[in-house]
Amino acid sequence: MTHDVVYRADCPSRTILDQIADKWSMLVLAVLSEPRRFNEIKRRLEGITQRVLTQTLRRLERNGMITRRVLPGRPLGVEYSLTPLGRSLQGPFGELYNWTVENMDVIQSFQRAYDHRGEQST
Amino acid sequence: MTHDVVYRADCPSRTILDQIADKWSMLVLAVLSEPRRFNEIKRRLEGITQRVLTQTLRRLERNGMITRRVLPGRPLGVEYSLTPLGRSLQGPFGELYNWTVENMDVIQSFQRAYDHRGEQST
DNA sequence: CCGTATCCCAGGCGATACTG
DNA sequence: CAGTATCGCCTGGGATACGG
């Protein structure tokens, strides 16, 4: 039987999932399909704050998925780009992203149906 | 040029990503590869609380990915199972999960290297 | 057994100001 | 330009108790 699989808290894959399965990491990696500077990334991710973008970039860097390169000259410039490891995540993430795009209409109609229950009173 | 793609806050795919790109949804769907009861799921996801599991299940149900079925008889029993939509997510999620398993060693060594910088003092 | 309701706290995040 | 620092809110989630 394979029936007694348990996802333990200290399972490394769970630890790593916690790092990348958030709303921003995926989008940052998508934006970094080509190397970009800090504010370029920020501009493309509507709603992200400077603070959170910095945190996300640091985490991705720590996990070996992107590199940070300070550009010579003034004013200061920093360029972020994918490592091979980060690029290898584009496959899985792309699949997931495509899935959401393909299914968002269906999902939204499910949501409407669900929200409709319990309140067609009077 | 495809260079000016911007991920807008009201993009449906972003809204949906916010729903499924969290640390528990993926694992719940994995556990539901076959229909299971509430406490079965809970037991297999070490560390999840009743409250959070309930919330996760409700959200997945609202999004049309799982169904909730009350079993006849007492004591009360409830069985959760994947819908076709939920099952179609297993592909993308499986890819992502496999990726983390395949790469967790590399990532952990990156993390150690990163954490090592800046503190080999004295 | 499968929830909901309540209380309560830590910490995540936005806003803002400041630096190399 | 690309951050770090500080502050204050506010909500997510743990713990617990209770209900169908």
From TrEMBL, chains A, B:
Keyword Transcription: yes
UniProt-listed InterPro entries: HTH_HxlR, WH-like_DNA-bd_sf, WH_DNA-bd_sf
PROSITE patterns attached to this UniProt entry: HTH_HXLR (PS51118)
Domain HTH hxlR-type: 11-108
UniProtKB keywords: DNA-binding, Transcription, Transcription regulation
Domain of life: Bacteria
PANTHER family noted in UniProt: TRANSCRIPTIONAL REGULATOR, MARR FAMILY (PTHR33204), TRANSCRIPTIONAL REGULATORY PROTEIN (PTHR33204:SF39)
The name this protein goes by in its record: Helix-turn-helix domain-containing protein
